[in-house]
Amino acid sequence: MNWLIKCFNRSLRNKVIVASIACIFLPVTISLTLYQYFTNDAVREQAIQNANKEMKLTEEYVSKIFQDMLYIINFVQFDTRLNALLKKQAEEGFTDQSPATYEEFLEDRTVMNTIKDMTLLGEKAHVTILLKNGKAYTNYPVTDYDPLSFIDTKWFEELNGLHGYESFWVETEPTVFQAEKIANPYQISVARTLRDEQSIIYGYVIVTMFENKISAIFENSNQYEEVMLLGRDHTILSHPDQGQIGKKFPYVGYGRSAVTFINGEEYLVTTSLFENNHWRIASIIPYNQSVSNIDSVFNRVFLLLILLFAVFLVILAYLIRHMTKPLHQLTKVVKQVQAGDLHVRTHVTSEDEIGQFSLSFDHMLDRINEMINEINQTQTRKRQAELAMLQAQINPHFLFNVLNSIRLNVYKFGDQESASMISSLSKLLRMTIDVNKGMITLKEEIEIIKDYMQIMNMRQKEKATLMINVTKEAEVQLLPRFVLQPLIENSIIHGFNQNEGIIEITAYLVEQALIIKVADNGQGIPPEKLENLIEVLSQNHLLKGIETKARAGFSSIGLFNVNERLKMTFGPMASVTIVSGTGKGAKIMLAIPLEKGVINHVQGDVG
Question: pTM of the prediction?
């Protein structure tokens, strides 16, 4: 809303924006909204409804086949007379050599006739009853298939794990019946255990149906639709193209109906789950084919879209041309400015938006000329300042040369200790004023520390001892100059407090990181102050005025300065760690990564 108010407060811009919205965005928005309203939702909803209807019909046909198979199993299990005969036969011993009595013959004939009567109605099914004693009843010749061979199948052992009236559905496998292999290459079976009153298994019943009975149902679907039966793991169990049987169907899991992309094209995938065996029927159809009945609506919307674009495009062209015509007068002035003539002016005196723009443009040119003059003056002053700075550099070098002369005179008269002190001071001053030497090797830093120790020991009554333990690999590593001096200074002034002591510098490489330890045997850091130091060091804030302090001299660069210089030079992985206690001395470890991000667990390696 605020944007619209600001837009209307600027009339010229308002005209252009309103014209653009009216002639481009509004027709696009209206057309797309109409398209969405008339096609997208309606098409998707209609396509899903049609797919669900087709799926429901197919599901009923396939479900009828499954119900027929379960009906046979239920009849065998629950028919009182048949159960009594089967239990009796299961309790008696059976061998192929033992002759059957007349009573057994009549009983066997009754069982066989019952099985045949069960399969007279509905689809043709092969029924097998296996008893625990090895006796079998079938409604097919045993010359086609030995029913005892079911025992050797991979799935037969799983029947013993069934409970109560549970059924085991055997997924599609090659047909085992010799007379049916050519006409019916694949079969689907369902099996169940037969149990007595104590729930002890005395037999099994297996009903087998041929796969092409199901695929024949799928062939009657839409010519563009592909329907199939899927197992629990989405393996294709039945398909009009028997070459697809056994392959995986990956497009399940989107719900009952969903539109998805397959090989770059949109397809409508519909599935339906059978509760009795948890198999699915899946259908897949090109989305364009499923929505072909709404093409007429799309065509009408498309024609309307073209018409709207044409009308609004004409309006837009007219409005923009009419509103931008006065701006043509300013083109010549802009081109002259572009060519470098900053003294030209528009001199447009009208009070409308064009006049206001021209006035602002003239003021801008005036300001540019003023800024150019200011820049020229600034550059002149800058050159003068650089000249003064070069002149100022003569003073430190002059001081260094004078100290060198004093050292030679002192040494000449035999005061070697004073000469050595002046030499150390001279080296430190040289390193301080050398602005081109920001990074030095650890070996050079150690030499600076030795000179600094020599100067400090000459100031104190009791001397501090420096011990160096640095590996050759660590000596050649680069680090900012004067990074160790503040640590040595703290040890001498605060740790020893004018008393003697030992400072040990240890440096080595570990995991592509340089570890430097500075340890002293001084009076240590009180716990409160140590805690405050650790907290401030962990905040990772840049120390204000660090460059000013560095230029003031090496004695003013403190512990925080060292921490920030390491982080600024080597990144946030560089760290300073302190371990101390009252009367226990102090240990400070610098962890410097040689490559970005290599320090892992060296933070705690201060011991």
Answer: 0.46
